[in-house]
Automatic annotation (TrEMBL), chains A, B, C, D:
Organism: Bailinhaonella thermotolerans
Residues in the DNA-binding region annotation: 37-56
Domain HTH tetR-type per the UniProt entry, residue ranges: 14-74
SUPFAM superfamilies: Homeodomain-like, Tetracyclin repressor-like, C-terminal domain
Record's keyword terms, sorted: DNA-binding, Transcription, Transcription regulation
PROSITE patterns: HTH_TETR_2 (PS50977)
Alphabetized GO MF terms: DNA-binding transcription factor activity; transcription cis-regulatory region binding
Protein name: TetR/AcrR family transcriptional regulator
Gene3D superfamilies: Homeodomain-like, Tetracycline Repressor, domain 2
InterPro entries, per the entry: Homeodomain-like_sf (IPR009057), HTH-type_TetR-like_transc_reg (IPR050109), HTH_TetR (IPR001647), Tet_transcr_reg_TetR-rel_C_sf (IPR036271), TetR_C (IPR011075)
Length: 197, 197, 197, 197
DNA sequence: ATATAACCGAGACGGTACGTCCAGTCTTTGA
DNA sequence: TCAAAGACTGGACGTACCGTCTCGGTTATAT
C-alpha cells in the first residue's frame, strides 16, 4: 500500500546519481556553495536538468546529499578512550577547533549550516544522517566515563553534549571569537564541572 | 585627508533611505527573506535600483539595515534584578524561548542568522550594532551578581554568556529539540553550577 | 520479397490506434493545434510515447491522420445538379464560404494548411486522401455541364477549379477580405466567363 | 493621452534592434525557419533574451520583422509597361513562377505563409507592410491598361489580382502542380478573358 | 504447447528551448 | 545635477516536450 507519489526509485539511474553528486561536490569546492547552480551541476554531470529535479526537491538537497555521500562508511567511528575523560574530550575539542579553522573545510560547512537553518527537512536529515552517528560515538564515550565513575550515572548525555558544543558552535557561526586550544579546554572543564556530582 | 572613495553621504536622500528600509522590512514579512529582491525593494520604495546599489554593497546589507532600523532606540535596556540571579536568568531565558517559538518572529531571525554565517562583514555589524548592547545589559546583571557575592568575581562573563546561550542557540538553529521552560531552567542551573566557586 | 523495414502492421493494436487518433482530435479542439504535444496525446490515449513514434513519423502526421479518420466514409459525395451550372456552383461556393467563416471549423483547417505548406509528404497525402474525392465530385459536376453544353468540352477542368477556388483560398488564408455570398457569386461568374467558349 | 502600456520606444536601443533582426535573418537562412529559436537569435545578436521579449510578442513577429527590414526601401517599384498588358503580365507571372521554384527563396516564404495563416496580427502586418506596396504597383499597371482601353474602366482591380494570383498561390502552397511558364501564361489569358468586356 | 519475438504502457534519460526573474551596469530624462 | 525610471547583457530558474532508451508484462504467431 505504498503512497507512490514520487517516481519509482527502481528505475533510477545509479550512474546519473553518482555523476550528479560528484559534480555537486566538485563545484562546491571550485566556486563555492552559493555560486553552484543546478544548471552547472547538470552540465558537469552530463545529465539533463530534469533528472536532478526528478529526484531532489531543491539545490540545497542535492548538495547536502553530496556531503552525505562523502561521510558514508564513517559509521563505526569511536572517540579516544584513555580512561581520562577530561583529557580525551580536550583532545577531541582541540581537533575540532583546528578543523573549523581550516578555510577549505570551513566554507562548505558554513554554507551547509546556513541551508539547514532555513530548511526544516534538511535539518531533519542532518540530524538523522550526519549528526546521529557522531553523537552516538560521543555518548558512548560518556557512558564509558559513567561506568568508570567519572560522571554521575543519571545525567542527560545529550544536554551534556549541548553544553560542550553549543558555545563552540555559536562562537564559530557568529564569529564571536577565536577557537583557540585554551578555549576548547575551557569548554571541557566547565562542562565537566557543571555535570560532575 | 580622507580617502573619500565612497559617495558623499551628505548628498544622500534621507527620504529614499527611509523608503528603501521600509520597503525591505515590509517585503521580508510579506514574502520571506529569501524571496526579497533588490528589484522588488526598489519598485516598492519608488526608487531606482541604482540608488540602492549606490549605498549598500549587497541585498543582505540592505535587509540587515532594515532590521537595525527597527531596534534603534532600544539602547538603555536592562535585565530584571530582584537579587536572585538564578530566578532572574530563568525569567529571561524562558521569555527568550517563548519568543523564539513564535513563527512570525522566528522566520526573519533565522534568515538573518543564515546571512550572518556566510558574510563576515554582516557578522561584524551584527555583533557591533545588535548583540553588543544586549550583551552589555546581560553582563551588567552578572556584575551585579558578582557584587552580591552570587558569582565569583574573577570569571569570564562572556564565557558565562556563551554557556548560557550557546546550547540554546544551537538547539534552536538546528532544530535539535524543543525550547521548553524546563530546558531554559536547566541551562541556567547548569551554567551557574559550572561557574559557581 | 518485400522490404519489410517498417514494423509489421499485423501486430498493430487497433485499440491503441483508435485511442491515439481520438485523443489527438480531442486535444486539437481543446487546446488548439499548435499546443498539442505527442506527450499529451500519449497520456490522453493511455498509450506509451513509443507506440506513437512507432507508427507515425511526426506530430503533424498523427494529427493529419486524426482528421482523415473523421472524413472517412464521405466517399460517395456529389454536388447538386439542377441543370443550372452557375446556380449550383454559387450554392456550393456560398456554403463553403459560410463554413470557412465558422471559427470552430476554421482553426483546425488553418492549422492543417499551415502544416501542409511546410511538409511535402503531408501535402501529398492531403491531395490523395482529402482533396481527391472532393475534386472528383466537382469535376463530375463540370463534366455533366459539358454534356449539357454549358461548358466547352475541351477545357482543363482542374484549371477551372483552380480559378474557382484559388482566389477564395488565398483570401481566406491571408485574411485578405471577407468571404461574402456576393464574393462567392463573383468567383463563379468570372470563372464561367473565363472558360465559356 | 497615450495608453503607454508597452515600454517607451524612445528608450529603445537601435543597436540591439538591428543586431536582433540581422541575427534572425542569418539564422533563418542557415538552419531554416522552423529551427530558429529566440535563444539562438539572442545569442547570435549578443543580446539578452528579455530584450527580444520586451519588443516582440512572438518568435514569428521577430522573424517577420527581419523580413520586413529586408524589403524596406523597395517602395517605388513599378511593373513593366510596354503597352501590351497581356505580354507584360505574362513576363511578371513567369518571373514570379521562376522565383517561387528557387528552393533558397521558397523555404522562408513558405514558413512565412504558414505563420501568417495562424496569426491574424501577422496577416495584418503582411498586408500592410509587404503586400500593399506591391499590390499598388500592380494596380497602377492595370489602371494604365484601363486608360489604354485594354481593360474595362469599371472592373474591381483587386478582384482581378486575386484571379491572377489566387490559383498560382494555391497551387504553390499545396504543391498542387508545377509552376510552368505555360501555366503562368494561362493564368494571364484566362484572367483577362474573365474581365475583358 | 511453448518459446520467442514484437508490441504494449510506462516513464527515466540527455537535451533544447521556453518565458520569467533578477543581478548589476548603463543611459535617458524630468525636476 | 541629481535621482527616478527603466533598458541593457547575462545567467539561472523551473517547466514542457523532444525523441531515445530500457523495463516488465502481455499477445500471437511459428516452430
Amino acid at each position: 500500500m505504498p503512497a507512490a507519489k514520487s517516481p519509482d526509485p527502481a528505475r533510477r539511474s545509479e550512474r546519473s546519481r553518482r555523476a550528479i553528486l560528484a559534480a555537486a561536490r566538485e563545484l562546491v569546492s571550485e566556486v563555492g556553495y552559493a555560486k553552484v547552480s543546478i544548471e552547472a551541476i547538470a552540465a558537469r554531470a552530463g545529465v539533463g536538468k530534469q533528472t536532478i529535479y526528478r529526484w531532489w526537491p531543491s539545490r540545497g538537497a542535492v548538495i547536502f546529499d553530496s556531503f552525505l555521500a562523502l561521510s558514508e562508511g564513517a559509521e563505526g567511528m569511536a572517540l579516544p578512550d584513555t580512561g581520562d575523560l577530561a583529557a580525551d574530550l580536550k583532545l577531541v575539542m582541540r581537533a575540532t577547533a583546528a578543523e573549523f579553522a581550516d578555510p577549505a573545510f570551513e566554507a562548505p560547512i558554513r554554507a551547509l549550516n546556513a541551508e539547514i537553518i532555513n530548511d526544516p527537512e534538511l535539518a531533519r536529515q542532518y540530524h538523522e544522517k550526519l549528526a546521529a552517528p557522531v553523537d552516538e560515538a560521543k555518548r558512548e564515550r560518556l557512558r564509558s566515563a559513567q561506568r568508570a565513575g567519572q560522571l554521575p550515572p543519571d545525567i542527560d548525555l545529550d544536554l551534556f553534549l549541548e553544553f560542550l558544543y553549543g558555545p563552540f558552535y555559536q562562537r564559530w557561526l557568529t564569529r564571536g571569537g577565536p577557537l583557540t586550544p585554551e578555549y576548547a579546554d575551557s569548554l571541557v572543564d566547565l562542562t565537566l564541572r557543571a555535570f560532575r556530582a
